[in-house]
Amino acid sequence: MKRALSLILALLFSFGAAFAAPAGASAGYVLCDVNADGDLDMKDVLLLRRFIAGAARGDEVSLSAADVNTDGDIDMKDVLMLRRVAAGTVKFSTVTFCAVNSAAAAYLKDAESYRDSDPLTSSVMPAHIDHSKPYDKPATSELPVPGGASLIVWKDTSGDAEWSSGVPGGVYRVRNLIPDHVYIYRFEDAEEKVLEIGQYTATGALRMIDLSEHLHNFRDIGGWKCDGGTVKYGLLIHGAQLDYTNEGDAVPLYLSEDITELKEVLGIRCEIDLRNFGVEESSLGRGVTYFNLPLSNNSLVENLDSENLVKALRAIMENVVSGKPTYYHCALGADRTGLVTFLIGGVLGMSRADIDKEYELTSFYQNDSLPENYTRLRTKGSYKDLAAYFAPSEEMTLRDNVVKWMTDHGIPLSLINRFRAAATDGEPEILK
Questions:
Q1: What is 21-89's CATH number?
Q2: pTM score, two decimals?
Q3: CATH fold of 206-423, please?
Q4: pLDDT class of 21 with cuts at 50, 70, 90
Q5: Rounded to whole angstroms, how far apart are CA atoms 214 and 102?
């Protein structure tokens, strides 16, 4: 009997029985730490071999940590890589860093005093603006590049997205991670030999997007509390323009690396341009749908009668329902973009206090080249008018008023409910 069992185990080790790794891994585990004891050593290797052979129970193993090569299966390939990590021939690192820059973090701390019932006569933002430079980009982390590395491969194990890029010598700047998602990276040489693997997690709910120096005010509106949970990350990105026109010709503000970041990392599949002038197609190129739906820059409330606003909202909502990440913008990503964000936040059930903060964060796109009146405060007349238009009453909440406006303008309640379900990480109530 013992001889037969030994033969069975030998066959399992030789051919590598495979087990599916858990989908949607969350923060709270360390890759390679199979026994979750805080150390990466041969104990992890032996436990993983026993698990694959069927000699260890699933509850003895951290399954997320066991998929060492992040291919979706737990098998002998993971054992071999884990042995290299335990032996020190492949370096392993785990990093957690806060991606919210210091100015934005300080502002959000002070803005905790905001209430939905505030009369919008004061703002804490002016105390946090440095007119000498913008603070509209996130904090990043520097990852040393090992000698001989030519490629870095990233996998978002929480969202199952994967991408790769070439690496220069020196350091690789880690940026634009979705907060609290677990990312696994590996450095490879030109022959695809793995030189280093590791795990990254960014903290801080605010997700500013880091692009090159001439692209500003890009944010993901995910992370804000709403009906049923929080707004999902990765679906709704807003910002300033990628290009401007000169005598009818589009002049790019972006670099090629920005296009890669927006399309491959952020996964943008639709661009909604709210500017009065448009371009023939998206600067993001093939595979990205483009709509030019001009809105007035004179008054936010004035645009509430615009068919283009309704078209923009419908397109955004339909994209989210279909799982298509969307980038919407005007020139600065401030007022017209802020109007769309106000309505999106309202229909999702964000508090007005949080919508105020989201609007004011645009103020960090402020530098010496822009006049000070580019600062966007909740005390600004056009924003106050918009908030007053949708102000709650004893019978109607802010959300109710936004929903009524949408249905009055032809956006069906069925689409609103599908959008709320798709854009929220929880279960919002079904509106009737």
A1: 1.10.1330.10
A2: 0.91
A3: Protein-Tyrosine Phosphatase; Chain A (3.90.190)
A4: low
A5: 21
